[in-house]
Amino acid sequence: MRGWSIPLGRWMGVELRIHVFSPLLAAVCLALSGSDGVTRGLGLFFTLVAAVAVRETARLLVAAWLGLRLRAILLLPIGGMFAYADPESQEGSSNGGGQFSMALAGPLANLVTALMLAATFLGAGGDIKLFSQPWISASALVRSMVWMQAGLGLLHLLPAYPLDGGRLLRGSFARKHGFTPAGRMAAGLGQILALIAMVAGMLLHSPWIIIAGFFIMIGAQIEDQGVFFQSVVDTVHMREVMLTDFATLSASDTLAGALVRCVHSLQEDFPVVRGTQLVGIISRQRIVDALRTDGNGYVQAAMSKAFQVARPDDTLGTTIRRIQTGRGLSLIPIADSGRIVGIVSVQNLMSAMSLLAEQRRLEREEARDKAL
User: How many other CB atoms are there within 10 angstroms of residue 342's CB atom?
Assistant: First the structure.
């Protein structure tokens, strides 16, 4: 999600991000407005923003009702993509009534909003030609408000991921064949239908169909990358990537003494122990800051007690989720029978993964040579 996206801050503990191409849609709306002017072009853009807001608000309410824990939302002009805080939430959103409720919430909210707007505008009187062509244009913003809501709702009934119809199809396939094959199938189908939509939009001279197809393609590619990443990290265990040559600090060490240890170590973060028991985590920067502000003291007074411990057999995917859900968490100790046997830090994780990939490649080549 972080690739090609812009952070918008956090809302109710959920990280909000917007795809970099989404703001460019404002420029497209201005171009489509032509002689209608900049104000109407921006008005057309905000009708789409309003339709997405209605959709995602409904989905967030359903997610809260189902007890699903969200970590991040990536906003596209066709809707949002959710990243869940834990595997249980991910699985819960893909099974049974929860999956159906999540898929139904967005389209239903858009279609109901479209009917309410249509009834309000027609009931208020005036010459509102609701069914005149084009349905969505800068010159008829009132009509566009209705059809943008209806169009987004109907669009998500198509069986193309990341649309809601595609999510239902993926969930049904996942119950029989597993999440990873289902994700790949849904992403592939989404890319095919996106290509068909873009070609159809060019043949029909409809910029909105082209735009929809373009962003369906982006969403499907994000899903495809996510499935590939998940399939990798869920097959790697912590014993394969953890650092086994590491230093620890004692809770009774002085900060000045700890600083000397830092000078002779490449570690950025250190587990703090009392005897054999892990009691905290402290970083180089925290040691320096504490020395500057409070003078020389003991490590236990400056260490952080907010930490999580993993086991050697835990998967890398589980550990990454722990790092992501723990604010400011940069190191996870690996413990076996209460004894620290390794550490995993954000600093060394990418390097370790690259080396592990090379190791596995060599092992495959050796196995192939032996088979020959």
Answer: 19
